[in-house]
Amino acid sequence: MGFPPAPHIRAGQVAYSLYNSRPVAQDVESNAGHDLVNQMISAGKQPKGCYFLGKDHIQQIFNPAETGGISRRDFMIVSSASLGLAAGLSGCRDAGAERAPARNFTVTSLLGTSPFYIAHRGSGDTWPEHTALAYASAVDYGVKAIEISVCATSDGVLICHHDTNTLRLTGEDLEIAEQPYERISQLRNDATKWLGPKAPTQPLPRLADVLDRFAASHVIFIEDKQSTNTDALLDLMDSYPDSRNHFVWKQTSSSSTRLKASARGYRTWGYFDAGSADTFDKYAPNHDFLGLYHAAPDSEMTALMTYGKPVIVWEVHTRWMRERLLRLGVRGIMCSNIPYVTSDIAHSTSDEFATGIRSPGDLPWTINWALQPRIQPETESIRLDDGSEFSYTMGSLCPVPASDYSINYEVRWPEAMPPNGGQIGIAFGLRDDTPYRPNFAESPAGYHLMIDGKGTLALSSRVVRGNAAEVIASSMSQAPREGQWLKFTVRVAAGGIRCSRVDSGVSSFAVADETHRGGYFVLCKGYNGRQPVEFRSVSVAR
After folding, report:
1. Which residues form a coiled coil (predicted)?
2. Nearest to 145 by CA among 189, 100, 113, 169
3. Which of 155, 393, 454, 531 is geometrically suited to a Cys-Cys bond with 416, CB 3.0 to 4.6 A?
4. Which distant-in-sequence residues (6+ apart) come within 8 Å of 135 by Cβ?
5. Among candidates 349, 348, 219, which has minimal Cα distance to 289?
6. Residues with Cβ < 8 Å from 148, sequence gap 6 or more?
7. What is the mean pLDDT of residues 436-453?
8. Which residues contact 228 (CB under 8 A, 6 or more apart)?
C-alpha cells in the first residue's frame, strides 16, 4: 500500500506510541526521520499536525509546544488492515478538511465481514479489561464490536465488570451486588499483574456512560454476569435508537434469559464450554449465534458449525489460534489481543520493557495472569522467575523476515546460577506463535540456542513436532557469572546461521542449515528451578 509524502511536516513534531505515550520519532525533517516524513498521511480533519502511518496503524502527530502534550482523547489510532484506507486517504489535507462520516456498524455489517472481530473485554491483553479506556481504545483501533460484561450494585446501578466480586481486579473483596455504587465508584481496576507495572489503573465504568458513547455506532455483545438484571438491562438497551441492530444478547447456551431478549427483538449468542458437545442439540437451535471456548477440540468446532449459524470462538489471544479457527471455517473471533491478532506484521523492532507495559503480542507460553513475567522498567528488562521451564513469545517483534535478519539480546542469571545442566536462550525460526519450550517434545519445529552455567553454547533443531530436538552445532565460551549480562547475536541468512556470544570477546560458530525459516521467536528458561532469568535489549535487525 503506497501513500504520498507530506514534506511540509515541521521538525520537532513527535509521534507518540499507542501503548506507552513515549516519543517514538522526533524531528521528522532530519535524516533519521526522512522515511517517516514520506509516510505522513491525513485521516480526517486535523486541528494540528498530521498522521504517521505505522507498521499496522495510523498515529496522529502533534507539536507538543502547541498542544501542551498529548491526552488520550486527542489520540487517534485505527487499523490500516481493517478499514480499507487506500480508497480514502490522499496525503495531508488542510486543517479545514471535512471529517469522515460517523461510523455506524450494525450486526448486519459485522456479519458482512469474514472473519469478524469482537474485542473481548475491550481487548484485555492490551488495555485494562472492561474499562472505558479499553473500550475506547479498541474502538479507536477499528473494531466494529465490543463485548461487555455487566453487574448491578445494591442500589441498581449497572456497571461494566466481568467478575461478580471485585477482588481479582481491585484487590478489595467485595460482592458488587452487596455494595452501593458510591462504594464501587471508589475502586480502580488494576491489571498491572497482566499488562505490566506501568499499566494505568482505571475506574469501573457505569454501563450507561459506555453505551452513551458506543451504542449508536458499534455492535455491543452484552452479558448479565449476575443473571438477575435481565429486565433492567433490556430496558436500558431499549432506550437507544435502532438498538436491535446494535446489541446482541450474550449468555450461556442454557440460560433462559434469551426468551425475554428474543421477545424484545434482540438476537442472542449462546456459548458453550469445551467438552459440552452432548448439549449442542438441546441448546444450539435456540440462538442466532453460537459460541465455543477456544480450547475445544477441532471436532467440537466443526460439529457446532453444522447448525448453520455463525460461530464465534472466545477468547483468542494469538495468531496461531486465529489461523486454526479460520482453517476450520469459524467466522467470528472474540479477541483479547486486538492490535496483535488482527495484523500479520511486527509492531516494533526492539523490546519496550523500559515502558513498564507489555507490548501487544508478547505473551507467556500459557495464558495465565500468575505466569506473566515481571517487566522491570528500572532495568529495562523482563524477569522469568516461574519455577518451571518457561518461555515468553516476543510477538511484538514478529514475524521477522523469512531470511537475512539478526536477533540480538542480552540475558543473565541475576541472583543464582542454574541447576546443573540448566540452560537459557532463545528459540527462533518458528512457523508461528504456538508455545515453544526447548525440552518439550510437543513443541513445534524450530531452533533453540541455549547456554548453560559452564558456558556451553549449543544450537539445537527440532525437525518435527513430537520429536526431541538434536544439537546441530556447539562451542565453548567463558563460563557465565552470577549477575553478568551475556550478549548474543543470531544471524540468519541464505545458506546458514551464525550464533555469536559477544560480551567477553567473541565466541561464535556457523552452521549451514536452512531447515527452519519461520518468523517467530521466544525467550527461554530451559529448566525447572526458582533461579530467575532476565532478558534485555531484545531486538531484530532487518
Report:
1. none
2. 113
3. 531
4. 119, 122, 146, 148, 160, 205, 210, 213, 214
5. 219
6. 122, 130, 135, 160, 207, 210, 220, 221, 222, 223
7. 96
8. 152, 177
- Residue 354 φ then ψ, to 5°: -65, -20
CB 13 within 8 A of CB 5: no
- How far, rounded to the nearest angstrom, does the alpha carbon of residue 20 sit from its chain's CA centroid? 14
Q: Is the C-alpha dihedral spanning 428, 431, 436, 440 positive or negative?
A: negative
Distance CA 316, CA 114 (A): 16
Domains 107-342 and 353-541 equal at CATH topology level: no
Q: Which of 251-255, 307-311, 400-404, 523-527 has the lowest mean pLDDT?
A: 400-404
Q: Are 199 and 357 in contact (CB under 8 A)?
A: yes
Asked if the peptide bond before residue 285 counts as cis, ω within 30 degrees of 0, the response is: no
Please tell me the predicted confidence (pLDDT) of residue 204: 98
Which contacts of 276-279 are long-range, i.e. CB under 8 A and separated by 24 or more positions? Answer: 276/300, 277/303, 277/304, 279/253, 279/254
- Cell for 308? 448453520
Whether the pLDDT of residue 59 is over 50: the answer is no
- Are 132 and 68 in contact by the 8 Å Cβ rule? The answer is no
- The set of cell numbers assigned to 400 is 521477522
DSSP for 338-407 reads: HHHHT--S-S-SB--GGGTSPPTTEEESS--GGGPPEEETTTTEEEE--SS-EEEEEGGG-SPPSSSEEE
Bond prior to 418 in cis (omega within 30° of 0) = no
Q: Could you tell me the residue ranges of all domains in the chain?
A: 107-342, 353-541
CATH topology of domain 353-541: Jelly Rolls (2.60.120)
From residue 422, alpha-carbon distances to 388, 447, 466 in Å are 11, 17, 22
Q: What is the spatial distance between Cα 227 and Cα 367, in angstroms, rounded to a whole number?
A: 27
For the domain spanning 107-342, the CATH number is 3.20.20.190
Q: Cell numbers 487499523 label which residue?
A: 79
User: Which cell goes with 515?
Assistant: 531447515
Q: Is 203 helix (H, G, I), strand (E, B) or coil?
A: strand
- For 359, the grid coordinates are 507490548
* pLDDT tens sequence across 142-185: 999 999 999 999 999 999 999 999 999 999 999 999 999 999 99
* Distance of alpha carbon 315 from alpha carbon 167, whole angstroms: 22
Residue with cell 507495559: 357
Residue 341 region by backbone torsions, left for phi larger than 0, else alpha for psi between -120 and 50, else beta: alpha
Kindly report, residue by residue over 249-281, the tens digit of the pLDDT.
999 999 999 999 999 999 999 999 999 999 999
Cα distance between residue 357 and residue 196, in whole Å: 4
How far apart are alpha carbons 334 and 180 in whole angstroms? 31
